[in-house]
Hints:
The protein has four helices and no strands. It is mainly alpha-helical. The radius of gyration is 17 Å and the shape is globular.
Amino acid sequence: MNPAGNLRYQVFVNDPPPQEGFLPDGEPKRFSPMASTLDDAEELLRTEDTAVGFFNAKIERYPDHLGRMILWVSASALYGVRDHPDKNAALIILNSWF
């Protein structure tokens, strides 16, 4: 807080990814923050063996990412369910918060 007692905040926005090229289905790339995040997640799920590796790779790509706790919980849940398909997915997701 500043001396007057007012809250202050800053907003951080990542630069959009390059637009050159085409998607796997042949469509031209168009920037969409959600699409680029999902594309990254799909790629990292193939290339990273652990939730820690996934988390670190995402932070390396997006160093100003503000939702790190949610990112960690999501990575932990994804890898937990993937690595233990015979277990109760709801319990794995719940435990990823702890």
